[in-house]
Specification:
The chain is α/β, with parallel strands linked by helices. The protein has helices spanning about 15-30, 45-60, 75-85, 100-105, 105-125, 160-180, 200-210, 230-240, 270-285, 315-325, 330-345; strands at about 10, 30-35, 65-70, 90, 130-135, 185-190, 190, 215, 225, 230, 260-265, 270, 300.
């Protein structure tokens, strides 16, 4: 009997939050996965190592290969493409974080621009069925029209991080037009969940409360975020992977850019104060914090920070139309899963 062919995916940022859960899902779906990550120290590498351990546990028949290396390493990226014959590439590796881009801009140029350029060049020389890459809701900048639609103007970024993500969309469009690379960019909205990034609000707040420190709630609490649970993000990504844009010829007889952009968000922005209340409640209910914890004494309302925006809100109608999927995990459910993981991971 002929052996079943496994599709081969490259997942960059495989030790990252979304990358690890996506890789786990792809292994469960029968893919061969090559994961690339430099496991840098931007946040606690211990969590990245725990995610990699999760992937090794999920890899029952040797379909997962992890490569510790940097996206900006041109020779390494070229070698990976030459040796593996990828069907689909999912580029999730990036220097993340809006605030850090103000302190350390070069990290964003190296990872988000040079690194993505290396991926595009490799897809040009080793054609793939689909390049899927992470953009970000931050490209919408201070957009006041809500919900944010993929058709909105995104020419006014308020952070270098946002500017690099918008650049990725433009670079992918140019490469798709020139070399017929089917490419889809995904604008993620505030992703959260277990094993997440410690620099994200829900995780950082939990750490600070546990240490008895005060949490700062920006814009005096008048902020809204479209919190999207990691499993919803992964479901969206896998559906998009299976649905590449078609390369078509234009009136001039030349190929047109086969590109798409989708929002992936919960389409349900939560007020920051309500979010903090829900987080505090589940932290007590799941035994992370004591029942008599004085939350009022540990919160402070502060002004907006540079690079931040007052609201994020995803219009996901295009994603629904093309993939039949709409993220829908309620905030309380997602935060509760996070609290359970946190208690176990830190041995509370």
């Amino acid at each position: 009997m002929a052996q079943q062919k496994h599709y081969v995916a490259l997942v960059t940022g495989a030790a990252g939050f979304i990358g690890a859960f996506l890789s786990k899902r792809l292994l469960a779906d029968g893919w061969v996965v090559v994961g690339l990550d430099n496991v840098n120290g931007y946040y606690d590498p211990g969590i990245k190592e725990a995610r990699l351990a999760m992937l090794r546990d999920a890899d029952h028949d040797g379909r997962f290969t992890f490569v510790r290396g940097d996206l900006a390493d041109t020779a390494l990226v070229e070698r990976l493409f030459a040796e593996n014959g990828f069907d689909v590439v999912v580029n999730l590796a990036a220097q993340a974080g809006v605030r850090y881009s103000i302190e350390n801009p070069k990290a964003y140029v190296d990872s988000n621009l040079v690194g993505f350029f290396n991926i595009l060049e490799a897809c040009r020389h080793h054609p793939v069925k689909h390049l899927v890459y992470a953009s970000s809701s931050s490209v919408y900048g201070g957009n006041e029209k809500v919900p944010f639609s993929e058709d909105d103007n995104v020419d006014s970024p308020v952070s270098l991080y946002a500017a690099t993500k918008k650049s990725n969309e433009l670079m992918a469009h140019a490469y798709s037009k020139l070399y017929s690379i089917p490419a889809t960019g995904l604008r993620f909205f505030t992703v959260y969940g277990p094993m997440g990034r410690p620099d994200m609000a829900y995780f950082g707040f939990t750490n600070k409360l546990l240490r008895g420190e005060t949490i700062k709630i920006f814009n005096m609490g008048d902020c809204k975020r479209d919190f999207t649970y990691v499993d919803d993000i992964v479901e969206g990504v896998t559906r998009v992977m299976a649905n590449p844009p078609e390369v078509k010829l234009g009136e001039d007889g030349l190929p047109m850019a086969a590109t798409r952009i989708y929002n992936i968000g919960n389409s349900n922005p939560e007020n920051l104060l309500d979010f903090v209340d829900t987080l505090q409640r589940v932290l007590v209910e799941e035994g992370v914090l004591p029942a008599d914890f004085n939350f009022e004494a540990h919160r402070e309302l502060v002004p907006m920070q540079p690079g931040d925006v007052p609201v994020t809100y995803a219009d996901t109608s295009k994603l629904e139309r093309d993939t039949g999927f709409k993220p829908s995990t309620p905030l309380e459910d997602g935060l509760r899963t996070f609290a359970k993981w946190y208690r176990e991971y830190y041995g509370l």
